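User: Show me a protein chain along with its predicted structure.
Assistant: Here is one chain, sequence first, then structure tokens.
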Amino acid sequence: MEYRLGDKVQTKKGHPCGSDTWTIVRMGMDIKIRCTGCGRVVMLSREKFEKRIKKILSPTE
């Protein structure tokens, strides 16, 4: 899959706040995502991010 800055993605496992949708905030060796429910920002390695992602909800163009 190809990811871009600003994409909304769904993870396999939900965040403790109850939301499972995230927005990609930063891309590089690591990927920084922001929870759409509570606003928490998490940085993951690209490998971990690709394992945890379920699907892209709304890709940016």
